Automatic annotation (TrEMBL):
The lineage of its organism: Eukaryota, Metazoa, Chordata, Craniata, Vertebrata. Residues 99-180 are annotated as: Disordered. This is Echinoderm microtubule-associated protein-like 1 isoform X3. It comes from Tursiops truncatus (Atlantic bottle-nosed dolphin). Residues 445-666 form the EML-like second beta-propeller domain. It comes from the Eukaryota.
Amino acid sequence: MEDGFSSYSSLYDTSSLLQFCNDDSASAASSMEVTDRIASLEQKVQMQEDDIQLLKSALADVVRRLNITEEQQAVLNRKGPTKARPLVQTLPLRTTVNNGTVVPKKASGSLPAPSGARKETAVPATAKSTIKRTSSSERVSPGGRRESYGDSKGNRNRTGSTSSSSSGKKNSESKPKEPVFSAEEGYVKMFLRGRPVTMHMPKDQVDSYSLEAKVELPTKRLKLEWVYGYRGRDCRNNLYLLPTGETVYFIASVVVLYNVEEQLQRHYTGHNDDVKCLAVHPDRITIATGQVAGTSKDGKQLPPNVRIWDSVTLNTLHVIGIGFFDRAVTCIAFSKSNGGSNLCAVDDSNDHVLSVWDWQKEERLADVKCSNEAVFAADFHPTDTNIIVTCGKSHLYFWTLEGSSLIKKQGLFEKQEKPKFVLCVTFSENGDTITGDSSGNILVWGKGSVVAVGTLTGRWFVFDTETKDLVTVHTDGNEQLSVMRYSPDGNFLAIGSHDNCIYIYGVSDNGRKYARVGKCSGHSSFITHLDWSVNSQFLMSNSGDYEILYWIPSACKQVVSVETTRDIEWATYTCTLGFHVFGVWPEGSDGTDINAACRAHEKKLLSTGDDFGKVHLFSYPCSQFRAPSHVYSGHSSHVTNVDFLCDDSHLISTGGKDTSIMQWRVI
């Protein structure tokens, strides 16, 4: 134990702190301005504070486990061998952890101080009054025995998380094959899930190419500049006006502070998954936001929590509820009559537990099962700090805080019609209109005269963006249309479908007349990406089983000659498979991790969006395995697409289930 305490105390070694303060690596090789340098240092400090908090929690858990083990051993030593009993009966009660301090269970079996006990309202504070939550991974067998598919420990299983993050993929157990370069044939072969993908390179690069060559990080970086969208489809009480003139709301894992008059946004990015609720302190400066549980890329659990932060400096003040909340925090509110010293929260567990906190001390004052139905809102009474009102599906409750207990009184409830969700309507600087609908779709209407839209049923539409009139409707197959691309000269439209075919249409009359030329058949899986050549004579396609095929679209014929295709100049590069972009794939990828790619118009940068909610920025061409990149967070779900604006000044990224659009300035 002495070694453990010495290693733990090293966290507060003043020499390491002095070394960190003297570390100027944030500015040594960068041209960042003073404000950016300060922000970088603040971010480092915040990361260290978060690490310390996690270490405290881990140490508390270790001490708790040691106490349990010692207690069980003492019982065995006193009683000696006994009959075998079911494991469920021998499990100890949950040890209370308050603000990083472990409170061991008393020898009598009763729980310690009421502040740590999870009690039913009208029952005395005994060991049996501790709230038992039914985890989402539990079920009750016909004989009445409770079966659990997860951990039997006191901590609740979070496998029922409502997070929209899709980052819980399993890493491949076997070591992935390294790419192979053939100088004789002039190609590079990479492997995805054991399947080879061959990419032929231009002739002028064969002699000088090497797999061992190092690729430098791009000199350009991305800075989150604008976040489009508002989460109104399943959240309430999440839009407030601050004294600074800013409107505060959230989308994905970002809390947006939007100044309507100055058309500026600031962003709080302390969360690591979907934000579900927001509350403003009576001082109108301090803000609390709660998030869902999730899973990181490496499989680690990201517990739900509430973060209290300063809306002026955007600094995190306190983090509460780590290890207590289940699935998500759906409702939070500050007390009003006592200066906002208390905070109430409702999680998304099966029992929707209501808890009251002294957020400045990070201590839980009381908690109780609120309802088996969904809870929509919770708030303190404006004149009585001890009264909390909660409402949700089929219920309205008035709670009175008495000591460490919450006493419930049921009020009259009149069921209301579920409100419709309004997402967002806004405009970009160049005049484009951005709209969001109740189905979660966000559309960008540019300055072009027509826009083509594909659907899930094989139908596609062409609209006039000026008059908003429907120009034409066509149907190709009955499968989802995944990608549509106009040729650079505007004379063709290529449509990739999930029926493994590419449909080619001739376009005339400024995009108002379409005549089907034919379809390109040859892929063995659905079409994922399409790119036209500069002269509009060739088409490159990727499919769901990692094929790279080339076509003459005017004749709907496949090009099989490597000599013909290897030196083609492409007008765009959105395909995720190809010699010029294969370096974007991380080691061990299963072939579906990268959803989108886009080359800048100046052909110096390449951006990708992946399944882990990350936006990457590479140097182009990206033809070295495991090429380095700048990585940016903001999306809480998989990134469905990325695209540079026409002048390469900004990058637009779109989220999947988080239904967000983010605008990044290239700096």
